[in-house]
User: Fold Homoserine kinase from Oceanobacillus locisalsi.
Amino acid sequence: MIPFRISVPASSANLGPGFDSMGLALGLYIHLDVADSDKQAFFAHGSSESEENHFIWNISKQVAERYGVTLPSCSVQETSEIPLARGLGSSASAIVAGIELANQLGNLQLTDEQKLAFGTELEGHPDNIAPAIFGGLTISTMLEDDIPSVRLHDIDLDIIAYIPEVELKTEVARDCLPDTYERNYAARASAMSNIVVAALYSKDYALFGKMLENDLFHEPFRKVLISHFDLIRENAKMLGAYGTALSGAGPTMLSFVPKGNGEAVKQEMAKQLEGYQVKLLKIDTKGVSIS
Assistant:
């Protein structure tokens, strides 16, 4: 076996009114370094002892079983730049890494659509899985027998992530949401989402940012769980950001800033947010990759 590396980007889902449908691949990664070995060994991030039941390896075994192959013995070293339970799609990235590991070791030659279908089956929804596979910004949904998705790679924006030390489990953030929305309310919320997408495609970033901050589906209900939600949004806008939104279910927030201004805004925002990692992130345009 020739040693190889699998890299899978983080992702930010929901993006304001793009609730449960819009995801953006970000330049933080899970890496799997794979080499030949006499016996199977999986070393988790920072561990010197092999884990037999690591989440990623278990995903690989599920894929292999689905397609009727036996994976060869190998050594896998996992490293991750993606913080857990921060709204950056860590579980989806791990699922995609496991699928790709089985794909490479089993020579399955899976299509992107097959990876998306299997990943969505495991994750329950495609909004993080799709950008982790395709890169860029993806808009996706689930039909009975298909998962349509559209990709947008050409986004001329800088992105600043505000990552707090505290975790927020998706289940807790999901429990804050209403079970149903009144029809007129849902129609308005859907219209916001439509305009967000149209503004991105037309590169009207001022309008994109404005509508990003007018979500009705989830942010009004989740913001009570997010420390400094209003402060981050207001101060970023004062520094020139087009708009700021929750990343996934939070607690991470993302600001979208004119291209070239990100470093200056990041430096100023970092001064105001003790206990946060404030990062200038690139949009990943490749998705899962092999090197």
In short: The chain has two domains: 4-152+286-290, 157-281. DSSP finds ten helices and eleven strands in the chain. The domain at 4-152+286-290 is CATH 3.30.230.10 (Ribosomal Protein S5; domain 2). The longest helix spans residues 183-201.
